[in-house]
Amino acid sequence: MWPKTELIDLLKITHPIIQAPMVGASTPELVAAVSNAGGLGSYGGAATAPAKLRSIIRQIRELTDKPFGVNLFAPAVEAYQLTPELLTKWHNELDAGPVPEPIPILGPFVDQFTVLLEEKVPVFSFHFGPAPIEAIREIHAIGSIVLATATTVGEANALIEAGVDVIIAQGFEAGGHRGTFAVPYEHGLIGTAALVPQIADAVSVPVIAAGGIMDARGIVAAFALGASGVQMGTAFLACPENNIPEVYRQAVLKCKDEDTVITEVFSGKPARAIRNRFIREMENNRDKVLPFSAQMSIGRVLYQTSAQQSNPDFVSMWAGQGAALAEALPAGELIEKMIQEFLAITASLQLK
Ligand SMILES: Cc1cc2nc3c(=O)[nH]c(=O)nc-3n(C[C@H](O)[C@H](O)[C@H](O)COP(=O)(O)O)c2cc1C
Predict the structure, then answer these.
(1) Residue from 164, 177, 219 to probe ligand 1 pocket by mutation (most atoms less than 8 Å from CB)
(2) Could you give the CA distance from residue 230 to residue 168 in angstroms, rounded to a whole number?
(3) Average pLDDT, the chain
C-alpha cells in the first residue's frame, strides 16, 4: 500500500511512520506500542544515564520484538557564568527551594553510545549533527541503521558524507529542538513543504519528512513531496503512553495554530514550544539565558515544580505548529486510524 518501500525494507517495519524520539516524553510503553503497530517507535535517550538507558532498552525488548530506535544528541560543551536572578524570583514564588547548580544532564555520549552498541539497538538516530564517522562505522558493523536530522540541503549532504543511511528533513513547523548543526539556526528555518523536495532531490538515500505532520493528510503530502516516510512527535504527545505532565498534555490539547514559538529560553538552544509566562518573561531577559544545556539543567526544578502544581507557567512544553490536531488516542489506535485515513485519501485522489 505504501508508494515507496526502500525505507520500510531498510528499517524492517510495516508502515513508514516513525514516532519521534522525545527526551522527556517518550517511554518504553510508547516506543513498543508504535513498533507493535508496525511503525518505528523511538526513545529519546540523550538525557538518560547509561545504566538506565540499558534497562530502558531491555524494557522495550520485553514489550516488543519489533525494530525500534534510540536517539542521542551530539555532545555539547557546557558553560555557565550568569546569575539566575529570575529563576530565584520564580523559585520563591512557587516555594520550590533553592535554584539548583547546573549539572551535565546530557550524556556522557560515549558511554550512552557504547550501551546502544552493546545492546545492538536496531536503529540509531542523532540530533544536532552526525555521530563521528568512526561511530557510524561501528553501528554499521553490528548491522544497524543510522538516521540523522537535517534542516538544510547542506546539512543533509554533510550527513551523507558522514555515512548516515536515512535523512530526517526537519521543517520549521517541528516541535522540540531545531536539529540545525552546520549553519546559524535562522538559516535552517525552512518549512517542511519547501525543505523535503529539495533534500529529496539532493540525496539518493530515503528521506523522512518531519515537522507539522499530524495525520494522514500530512503523510500523503510527505510522499507527494518526495519523502519515503514521516517522523511525527507532536502527534504522539496526547497519547496516554508517554510521560508528559498532565498540565502539558492539556496545553497540547488546547493549543491553537498560533500558540507555539521557537525559543532558546528553556534549554539554551532554539526549540519550538507552547507559549507561556516563562517564555514571555525570559525572552525579555535574553542576556540571562545560559548556554545549552546549562539553561535546561538550572531550570529543571522550576519546570518540575510548576508541573507538579498543575501550573503551566514554567513548564517546558515542547510542541509543534500542528499541536491543535493532536488526538488523545493510544498510540496503536492512532497509527491504525492514520493508515485507514491514508487509504481513504489516496483512493479519493485517484484521477478519474
Ligand atoms: C516533546 C518533543 C521532544 C523532542 N525531543 C527530541 C529528541 O530528543 N531527539 C530528536 O531527535 N528530536 C526530538 N524532537 C523533534 C522530533 O524529532 C521531530 O523533529 C519533531 O517532533 C517533528 O515535528 P512535529 O513535532 O511537528 O511532529 C522532539 C520533539 C518534541 C515535540
Answers:
(1) 177
(2) 8
(3) 94
